Amino acid sequence: MKAAAARGLSPGGALLRTSRLFALPAAIPPPPGAISEHTTYKQSDTATQAFPTHQVITTLSSSRQKGDWGLKRPLPLKSTTKSTNPMLRVKAIDTIESITDFTSGADHGLTLRKFQELSLPLFAPQHKNDVRKMGLQPKSVFEDDGDVTALDSLEKIETRDVRWKFGGPWLSGMNTAEFKRWLVHAIRPKRAEFRRFLKAKLAVELLQPARERALDNGIEENGTELPQAIDPDSIADEQYNLYLRKLRSDLPELYHMVGVFLDLAPLQPPIQWSVETASSTTEKEPVSHTLRHIGSPYAESGPPPTHPSAGLSYLRTATYMENHPMYGPQLKHTPVQARVLSPRRPGRYDPVVGVAGFVAKTPRGDSISNQKKSKTHLHLERLDPSIAGGAKIWVHPQHAEITPIGQVRIQLADARNEDSMIVQELLGEAKVFGEVKQPEPAPTWSAENIRKRFSRQLYTSPPVMSSSDRYGMGAHSLGGKGYST
Amino acid sequence: MSSSRQWLASALRRCQQIPQQATTTRPFSSSAPLAAFKSPSEQLAGMFTSHKKDNASSAASAGRSSSVLQELLRVGSEKGGINASGAVSRVLESVRSSSADLKLSSESHAYVRQIYRRWTPGEVYAPRDLNPTEMRRWRRDRTPKRDILDVLGVNPVDNYRNFSLISEYVTPLGRIKHSKDTGLRPVNQRKMAKAIRRAIGLGIHPSVHKHPEILLRSRLITPISPPVSKSNA
């Protein structure tokens, strides 16, 4: 294989090509710090970041025992062989001190695994301020019309309301300093190009009425040709200036043209506009160009920096049904436990929970966790130090979305008592029908217990493989009681 | 008169039942006065049954907030003033639940105050982020690494009327903060100092404390800690 890959290359090139040096992708830039990080001084450099910037690597256990992680040099065994989850993040393959700089990558690696266990679909952001779209089910990021990036200039204009990738920035997300810098460095050099763009538009606009007039007069039937396309360069400066003046008085139209020229991400119009257009039932009213982009799900908070799924999940919906061996098909998916990271604080801080390693808001609206007498509500209101390992509540993750700064927001709903009972029954913590089984006291390590346990395992343990007289159906073949100490 | 005597008898019976339940539900109490505080109904029953005797538990509870209510109840029951049946048990129930509630919430508050990190939705956490060492890092103040005025493109001299901006760069005693605390570069630090001096000179910003609007706001959002029970005192 190596020889085949290196055949057409120079010896030096082949060496680099087959080198393990190029196996790791370059690190992506870290999550942008929020503006508040410059004003609030409380932060930690060592906290887990909102998304991984380095590739997380793993290796087989046999290779791990030898220190072989597929890198340039074997890694020290003392710090890499003890972990239950062998995941590493290589910061530098080879530093000037001749060492491989690595840390544990289990934080993001396990978070990804836990997220994939939730089997959540990723949706485009929901409309929060648009009254017309508030109740609509959010769309998957994998819808065919929106999930296209290879577009020509005409398709770019047509798909502006649905696509997620834009050439230009999202202006609402820029602060004054960024905007000024962007004007100087990115926009000023494009003046001549924009002039040509406008002249081409003007040429089309001038040609259109002449062509219509010709068609109305039946020139084509008489054998004469249609008026030819106007050369944009031939347009006089005076005519162009007049056109520019007219455009400047029609700001929505001008904004639309600038948006098309720079491929700007769509902006949400002010809220009262959308309310007015929503209340006006007549279709004949002229709709301003700014209102064209109201349909984009990314107009409110900006387009995401990656693909809006971030490669976390490829599910389109969550409309699949789970089956329980005893109770049959289930209405809801299996609920999961959410850790109460911080209960409600007096003041303005709402409770926050963590699901699969992601911080999430608690379920809103008229749900169980908001009913005053429910146990869930009490966990969210108070920190109970007597709960070992911290309080947890049962929730239904609904879907996830990627925010403009690359974070994952998981939408939660409350789990019904029935669903959480069924899960707890599977875990052996509750019983749906009949009495609740009291948890067994932890086994004490007395000499008698240890002797009993090991003697059972060694001498009287049933065979793991079933014999022909039971065919795997007998109680012995399960081998349950012998090991359950 | 006979009806009020009947009511008193039934109330006494009810009160005698309550401590029995209380002792069964709370077999282990941490300390004697604390346990007495946990179940004020018990003290109350003790007062009803033996208020002529020198009861140690009722003497211990004399300084507590619920003792006033209990005294009132005792006087009222002696006079036969409360006619509604079950009123005593209702009041007792509310006293008991509210005192337990208060204890739990003050305990919770004491723990929640030690969660220094303000979690925001979308962040990722690993078990490591929940340990005390990591949590302590969110406690301490740090100098901002970048000049916030440059980041935002704000000219402080234009913002001398912006009292929330001015108050941000003034200590609680009204002095201009040092650049090592503000993290501003020298040019912006001078501009900010000029804006503060200008605001004070114009008389639109106080010179010895932050702006009253800011003080009021911080007062409103600062949690008022619940009173800690002084049962052990």
TrEMBL record, chain A:
Pfam families: Mit_ribos_Mrp51
Gene Ontology annotations for the cellular component aspect, listed alphabetically: mitochondrial small ribosomal subunit
GO MF assignments: structural constituent of ribosome
Keyword Ribonucleoprotein attached: yes
A biological-process GO annotation: mitochondrial translational initiation
Name of the protein in question: Mitochondrial ribosomal protein MRP51
InterPro entries: Rbsml_bS1m-like
Source taxonomy: Eukaryota, Fungi, Dikarya, Ascomycota, Pezizomycotina
Record keywords, A-Z: Ribonucleoprotein, Ribosomal protein
Organism: Podospora didyma
From TrEMBL, chain B:
Any one Pfam family match given in the protein's UniProt record, by short name: Ribosomal_S18
GO biological process, one term: mitochondrial translation
Superkingdom assignment: Eukaryota
GO cellular component: mitochondrial small ribosomal subunit
UniProt GO MF annotations: small ribosomal subunit rRNA binding; structural constituent of ribosome
Keywords: Ribonucleoprotein, Ribosomal protein
Coiled coil stretches, renumbered: none
InterPro entries tied to this protein: Ribosomal_bS18, Ribosomal_bS18_sf
Family statement drawn from the similarity comment of this UniProt entry: Belongs to the bacterial ribosomal protein bS18 family.
Identification of the protein by name: Small ribosomal subunit protein bS18m
Organism: Podospora didyma
